[in-house]
Design goal:
The N and C termini lie far apart (40 Å). Strands 2, 4, 5, 6, 9, 10 and 11 form a 7-stranded mixed β-sheet that branches. A 4-stranded antiparallel β-sheet has the order 1-3-8-7, with no helix packed on it. By secondary structure, the protein is mainly β.
């Protein structure tokens, strides 16, 4: 079966950095776009970043643009989220997700475009 396993979360001070990883198994990783979402307590899950098949397109939420970078290593079946200049409002559980398709020019921010999800990893940014 398809499995997504996130790692790399933790506690960091404001202004610090973290890199999240998401290892995928059970499907041909390189054929699918990938996304990162997050969910803070009491809030809905929100889009963070997207990377298409082959890394041809990358999109970010306005709140993280310029601070976060999404990348993928198809040889390792892994997608990454490099997070710099972290803020307390970045505190959330971060989820990676495997998309239904390989390339989107729209709709990539919708959870409905993703059919497999990881279990999430906690990121806490202290002020």
């Amino acid at each position: 079966q398809v499995q997504l396993v996130e790692s790399g979360g933790g506690l960091v001070q404001a202004g610090g950095s973290l890199t999240l990883s998401c290892a995928v198994s059970g499907r041909t990783f390189s054929n699918y776009a990938m996304g990162w979402f997050r969910q803070a307590p009491g809030k809905e899950r929100e889009f963070v970043a997207y990377i298409s098949w082959g890394g041809l397109a990358r999109y970010y939420a306005d709140s993280v643009k310029g601070r976060f970078t999404v990348s993928r290593d198809d040889a390792k079946n892994t997608v990454y989220l490099q997070m710099n200049s972290l803020k307390p409002e970045d505190t959330a559980v971060y989820y990676c997700a495997s998309a239904i398709g390989r390339y989107y020019t729209s709709g990539y921010a919708s959870t409905h475009q993703y059919d497999y999800w990881g279990q999430g990893t906690q990121v806490t940014v202290s002020s």
